[in-house]
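Good morning C.,

I know you're traveling, so I'll keep this short. The sequence:
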Amino acid sequence: MKKANEHIDEILMLRIIENRADDNEIKLFNNWLQTSEMHAKEFEQFKKVYELASVNTLNKQKNWQAIMQKVSENKKVPDYIELEAKPHSAIKLYFNRYMRYAAIFLLVLGLGFLTKTIVFDSQQLTISGKDMKLHEAYTLADGSKVYLSGNSEISFSKNFGKKEREITLKGEAFFDVQRNEKLPFTITTKQTTTQVLGTSFNVFSDLSGNVKVSVVSGLVSFYAGNKDEGLKLKAGEQGKYNPVLQKIEKDKNTDMNQFAWKTGILYFNETPVTEAFDLLQKHYSRVFAFKNQQKNIATLTTTFDNQKLEAVLDELNLLFNTKNVTVNDTIYFIPNTK
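The tokens, ready to paste straight into the viewer:
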């Protein structure tokens, strides 16, 4: 450890912040803090970096690895990161040389960084569905609204809406696009492109590269590669991209629960119980199952409108004449016995 009037190790500052320092370390820290106003400022900057550790983001690992790579290669590290705590409200924290080092130091210790929006490219913003409230829309600069499912994210230029309206999507999102015939709204997902002037539609993609576009209103252009070989989709239609065949096909959208993740409404109309349980599992992050095989319960007919899990279980027990027990993340339905 360096002399107190020069510098102290970042490990000690971390122990001070987390209230893990012993009496000797506290005394050493206080002596160092009182020797210079710069030390106090240095410690405040370190605290700011530490405070970023409490917020999770899909991009933290990728972005911080990029920073570390640049430092190891003696390349220039960007001067700020931009945080978007709320739509249209940004905060910039400017990094000096010490703060950059502290950030990397905290990463090495395994602390997670940062925010609803984290960018080291000053021209790019990323929004994660994990940081959005349930059924909450993110409003873009042009007034368009985007609803993101939990594990999804969108990236777009900080100048979005001025000269272009281009979005990159990972996962699933519902778009309600403000019409602008001069600036088409374009979404890139996997190997596909979805383009509209102004309409509402859903885009879904999975890790295998499958993409599905479902249109609620208006007209949507959906293509992979050559736009002229793509599809024009209207309300009630959907296009599916198969990454193996590298082909897009059109069909009708008949899934009543396709947008349940956005609306919170689940429809069941003589739905096979196994299929209903799969949908409930996805919606409530619990496994639904019968304790014993129930041959007399084949289908489910009901509607759940943004109901809490407890209310859903009460209704299912009434319909099935069962009671339920929970073991870990599995909810078992057991027949009532007289």
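Safe travels,
E.
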